[in-house]
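Hello,

Our lab assistant flagged a job as stuck in the queue for most of the afternoon. It eventually completed. Since we weren't sure the result was trustworthy after the delay, we are filing this so someone can double-check. Below is the sequence as submitted and the structure that was eventually returned. Let us know if re-running is recommended.
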Amino acid sequence: MTASTTGTLANRLTHLDWTALAAALDTDGYATTRPLLSPEDCALLAACYDDDALFRRRVVMERHGYGQGAYRYFAYPLPPVVAALRAALYPPLAAIANRWSEWLRIDRRYPDTLDAYLERCHAAGQTRPTPLVLRYGAGDYNRMHQDLYGDEVFPMQATFLLSRPDADFTGGEFILTEQRPRMQSRAEVVPLALGEAVIFPVRERPAQGKRGFHRVAMRHGVSRLRSGRRNTLGIIFHDAS
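-- returned structure --
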């Protein structure tokens, strides 16, 4: 993708209604954007999966008990569009993350820029990039999990859908679960359009109770694909150890 393409993408992200997105994250535990990536962008990102030079590691989920399917972690330097998405999403999410820390009385604040936050990760020994492309075929799925790669954890991440629901694949719904204290888990199925992102907690989020805010544990996964192929781009902000 050209510099003008990545610049246009960053501009789209900057002009999202972050007030509404923050409100959705606060009340629902997730937020969806309108489609931000064009069909051409999605096709190019999905095709990246086959370019070995772009990646540092491939994981076959079945070998590790993660589900079925596979994903690949990008190597540094990230492709320009992936780097642009990560850098543009970070600042408004850092503002939300800092508010969450205040509500939960956590002594942790996040800097204003991604570069400054990555310096913190690298100082903690977390130097390997975590953005990834995931590929699922018929029968594949991803068990409920959390993307934790070390002690340094940014509290939110984003997943972009790179395939067309009901055209490129069926099934394969994005699922979130939350576990409130002394209650059974609640599941949420999040429908996405081609090029659209869902923003969601990595590990936990604040929830308002009668005595103030408390922590709600979150996990995410993907239901079994019934047919076709599903590709997604994951944007995780903390690096891995």
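-- support follow-up --
The delay was a queue issue, not a problem with the job. The result is valid. The mean pLDDT is 94. The longest strand covers residues 225-236.
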